[in-house]
């Protein structure tokens, strides 16, 4: 069996490396080409690459594991994320695409913000780069942890071998192919994830004996798996608050900067939301049918985050199993590659080029970007040595950090022309620090609530928003931006 699985995975890796080579030879060897693909992404690639880079290993491991344990009480996070993704397409995507092009073709989020606020001090750029590098190190670590668990539970390899193998493949195609390779591989990986998350729960239900038998099995196992009755309001609010994080995720919103034009965003939104709804329902199905399947077959699941792996290896022919395990790798690798690329872009443009080598050529900056991909991967490998880390917990921390530090900042900057530089700085600092402090506090809030009951993104997002508004209203805004704002609104209307 393992020989067939290994062979199918080897073929998958060859395809990824081939796409990396395609990206290397098809894209101009300059900064815009390496970091944004020359702003030539089509709607389908934009949609699925945004979705695949968003979902990561938690969509096939973390969230199914949560549903496996708590049942439909765990769907609130999925609902919040779906709403957040839709609002991201509606509110942020069109304006960010136009603004970044208007502001001298800004290729990174820190570069956009620096030009947006005419920040000659470069403080905003430094703060943004620091947030990106720190939180992406954590985020990338979550992907490697998921990869390590996959290879350990499925192939009998050591956890350490798993994280190194995952990193090796991702770094290879990301380093050489740049943004084009990352986006195209994300598209392929998104397609694989879609098929896998439809196939596994459907086959599981058929194996158990049909829908009615599956429901009966779940009710006999634990009635609360199909009930909302014990769900506290604060639990629902905290879970749905994950949707707020979308506005501040650099590896997702960079896709909106790279799409060909505004008209393509409409098609991208429709494709992206259709894909996300299908994938999310499939994930919920995996968790629920996994609980029923394990009970029906007397299986002991020691780590709930491996339920998709257990079902894939138990229900299917080895060749199909290899395809399904490739779906997990797809989710993991698509996110890691996007994060590595955004991190390297920030290191190159916002640190090296902005402060160390202001006269660096395009070719030199691309070389630095490639080396930075490798450097960030090494940091993530070091952090991933602790296999006790929960995939969902690591993702939650990084998601909250980006959502609070960047979400209100980017959204308000696109709509309010009176926002000031100091307001932006206050938003970054207050949002980022609040999430870090909140996640490490254990303080009673009264009414039987503790800080650990409230997802840190909520206080972080509120603190950042208030800081931006209060500081900006006490200062005079820069008039330089008003003309750019007028041009953007005019282009959006056309």
Oligomeric nature of the chains:
single chain
- In sequence order, what are the helices and strands, one letter per element? HHHHHHHHHHHHHHHHHEEHH
Overall geometric form: globular
Beta-sheet strand percentage? Answer: under 5%
CATH topology-level fold name: Sodium/glucose cotransporter
Q: What structural class should be given to the helix and strand makeup?
A: mainly alpha
Report how far the terminal alpha carbons are from each other: 58 Å
How many strand units? 2
Report the CATH architecture.
Up-down Bundle
Total number of domains? 1
Q: What's the pLDDT, averaged over the residues?
A: 84
Give, in spatial order, the strands making up the sheet with the most strands: 1-2
Low confidence ranges:
none
CATH superfamily caption: Sodium/glucose cotransporter
> Helix fraction?
over 70%
What about the largest sheet? 2 strands, antiparallel
Pfam families: SSF
Function: Catalyzes the sodium-dependent uptake of extracellular L-proline.
Organism: Alteromonas gracilis
InterPro entries: Na/Glc_symporter_sf (IPR038377), Na/Pro_symporter (IPR011851), Na/solute_symporter (IPR001734), Na/solute_symporter_CS (IPR018212), Sodium:Solute_Symporter (IPR050277)
């Amino acid at each position: 069996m393992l020989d067939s699985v290994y062979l199918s995975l080897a073929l998958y890796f060859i395809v990824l490396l081939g796409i990396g080579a395609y990206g290397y030879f098809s894209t101009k060897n300059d900064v815009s080409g390496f970091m944004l693909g020359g702003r030539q992404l089509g709607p389908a690639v934009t949609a699925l690459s945004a979705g695949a880079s968003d979902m990561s290993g938690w969509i096939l491991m973390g969230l199914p594991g949560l549903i496996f344990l708590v049942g439909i009480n765990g769907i609130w996070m999925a609902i919040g994320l779906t709403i957040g993704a839709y609002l991201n397409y509606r509110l942020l995507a069109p304006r960010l695409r136009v603004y970044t092009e208007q502001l001298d073709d800004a290729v990174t989020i820190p570069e956009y913000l620096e030009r947006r606020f005419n920040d000659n001090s470069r403080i905003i750029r430094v703060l943004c780069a620091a947030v990106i590098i720190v939180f992406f190190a954590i985020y990338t670590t979550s992907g490697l942890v998921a990869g390590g668990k996959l290879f350990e539970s499925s192939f009998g390899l050591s956890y350490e071998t798993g994280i190194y193998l995952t990193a090796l493949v991702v770094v290879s195609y990301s380093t050489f192919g740049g943004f084009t390779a990352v986006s195209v591989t994300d598209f392929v990986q998104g397609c694989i994830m879609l098929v896998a998350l439809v196939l596994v729960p459907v086959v599981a239900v058929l194996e158990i004996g049909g829908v009615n038998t599956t429901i009966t099995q779940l009710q006999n196992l634990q009635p609360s798996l199909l009930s909302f009755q014990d769900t506290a309001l604060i639990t629902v609010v905290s879970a749905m608050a994950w949707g707020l994080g979308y506005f501040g995720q650099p590896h997702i919103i960079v896709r909106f900067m790279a799409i060909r034009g505004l008209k393509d965003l409409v098609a991208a939104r429709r494709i992206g939301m259709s894909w996300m709804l299908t994938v999310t329902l499939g994930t919920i199905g995996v968790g629920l049918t996994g609980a029923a399947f394990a009970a029906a077959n007397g299986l002991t699941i020691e780590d709930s985050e491996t339920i998709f792996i257990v079902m894939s290896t138990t229900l299917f022919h080895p060749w199909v199993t290899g395809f399904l395990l490739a779906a997990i790798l797809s989710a993991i690798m698509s996110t890691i590659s996007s994060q590595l690329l955004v991190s390297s872009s920030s290191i190159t443009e916002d640190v090296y080029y902005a402060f160390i080598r202001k006269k660096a050529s395009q070719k030199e900056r691309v070389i630095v970007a490639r080396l930075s991909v490798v450097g960030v991967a090494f940091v993530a490998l070091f952090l991933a040595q602790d296999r006790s880390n929960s995939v969902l917990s690591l993702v939650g921390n990084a998601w909250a950090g980006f959502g609070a530090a960047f979400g209100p900042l980017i959204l308000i900057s696109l709509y309010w022309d009176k926002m000031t530089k100091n307001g932006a700085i206050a938003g970054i600092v207050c949002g980022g620090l609040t999430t870090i402090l909140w996640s490490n506090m254990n303080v009673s809030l009264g009414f039987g609530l503790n800080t650990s009951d409230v997802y840190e993104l909520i206080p972080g997002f509120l603190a950042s928003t208030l800081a931006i508004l209060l500081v900006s209203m006490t200062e005079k805004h820069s008039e330089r931006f008003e003309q750019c704002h007028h041009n953007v609104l005019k282009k959006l209307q056309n």
